[in-house]
Amino acid sequence: MDKEQNQNLDDKIEKESENEKSSSQDNEKILQKSDEEGEKLEVKSNEEKILELEDKLARTFAEMENQRRRFEKEKDEAFEYGGFSFAKEALSLIDNLERSKQILKSDQKLKDTDALVKTLEHLDIISKDLISIFSKNNINPIESLNKRLDPNFHQAMMEIEDNEKEPGTIIQEIQKGFTIKDRLLRPSLVGVSKKSKDKDQKNEENKQNSDNK
């Protein structure tokens, strides 16, 4: 009887030992698996960091390239159009010469005198020299007379009745316009043609104006 109890006790101890061993092995597997997953997470985290750094680096290079292009464009424009303001102000010289010519021509005391003729000749020479200097610097006058009105280059200041010209044709240049290379320096101020009204139209408009009053 004692022998049988001892045997059962030994079996029980052995079984518990096997269970403990099995449990220990399971724990080792769990720990090993946990370590492997941790290593994977760490590797993944490092890869994500590398990808983030690569993305930031690419964005930085793109921004630097954009800034370089903007700088190059601004530099080119400054070189090409750096004298824009100066050129625009210098046009007043031509305007003043033209005004002086008109004032002299309208002076009754100087009319038909040799002094007027010579003075106008000198002013014309100065005006042509100025335009020549402007042209050498890519500042050119806009052709206006007998041209169709172009809002990109002309500014209509008045309408003038003229049945010989197509409506919208420039028949008077009030102030000459200029371009600098491919840019508008200032528009030409012009007068454009329009069809003259017949008597019936004028009478009808006068009647309407009278009724409105």
Report on this model:
The structure is a single chain. This protein is an alpha+beta fold. It has three domains: 1-81; 83-137; 142-201, Head domain of nucleotide exchange factor GrpE (Nucleotide Exchange Factor Grpe, Chain A, domain 2). 66% of the residues lie in helices and 15% in strands. It contains four helices and six strands; from the N terminus they run αααββββββα. The protein has helices at residues 2-81, 84-106, 114-136, 199-212, and strands spanning 139-141, 154-161, 170-175, 178-180, 183-186, 188-194. The strands form two sheets. The chain has a three-stranded antiparallel beta sheet with strand order 1-4-5. Strands 2-6-3 form a three-stranded mixed beta sheet, with no helix packed on it. Strand 4 (178-180) and strand 5 (183-186) form a beta hairpin.
How much of the sequence lies in strands comes to 5-15%
Largest sheet: 3 strands, antiparallel
The strand line-up of the biggest sheet is: 1-4-5
Q: In DSSP terms, counting alpha (H) and pi (I) runs of 4 or more, how many helices?
A: 4
Cα(first) to Cα(last) distance is: 142 Å
Helix percentage: 55-70%
Question: Which parts are unreliable, with pLDDT below 50 for 5 consecutive residues or more?
Answer: none
User: What does the radius of gyration come to?
Assistant: 47 Å
Shape label: elongated
State the secondary-structure class. Answer: alpha+beta
Mean pLDDT over the full residue set: 76
Q: What sequence of helices (H) and strands (E) makes up the elements?
A: HHHEEEEEEH
